[in-house]
Amino acid sequence: MDERPVSPALKIAAGLMFLFLLAPLLVVLPISFSGDDFMAFPPSSWSMKWYGAIFANSVMMNAFWISLALAFVVTVLSLGIGLPAAYALVRLKPPGAEALSNLFSAPLLLPTIVLGLALLLVFAPMGLIGSFQGLVAAHLIVTLPYAVRVLSTALANLPLTVEEAAGMLGARPLTVFFRVTLPMMRSGLVSTTALCFLVSFDEVVLSLFMTGPRLQTLPVAMYNHVDQQADPMAAAISVLLVVLTLAVVLVVDRTAGLTRTFVK
Description:
The protein is an all-alpha fold. The chain is built from 13 helices and no strands. The longest helix is centred in the N-terminal third of the chain and has 35 residues. The radius of gyration is 22 Å and the shape is globular. It starts with 7 loop residues before the first helix and ends with a helix.
């Protein structure tokens, strides 16, 4: 393949774009190591005390474990529901498959605050506000469209002839699915898992509508903390969340490869 050299102007434009995207981190990172009792940039002194304050704060730690458990449950359910749905849309192709695919993607077209208000009005009479079950249902509405879309793309890009050959050799449909189809769509499964986990863990708008005083996720706890006091703890948590996201990306890269997973 003929590779044309990248022009210097394009390199400069790409560098400026990356700098623009990383600008918030370049401010938050120094603030997280501030020794001050309030947010100030640049800090007047340096300290690691706010990282220690996170682990000493029972509200933040409880919210972290709730967010972790919530993201895990939502990811498992998204895979469990999204995989059969994607298989039905791509392989079985029922009547109105395109309309069903668009219906699955519909929640992504709505502003999150509108979706949160609608869920509040629907879930409140059912007693799901401030409950773990309500949070799971709300997050599923956001993560399922991603799961169905990514898994459908992964299935559509698989060579159908391999599955047909396995069936012609006597393998049953379930055997073909578990021993041929699933291994071939490994990168799609990895990307879906990572995407659903991160979307659920970082979701704040829907969580604000669904949480209560006894149950709050980490993004909601951070929002309430910043609303009450402007210390650098929120910056330290933000840096740790960036590190968590990078860890997930590295896991994806090591297991399936970023190019094969996201550039499909």
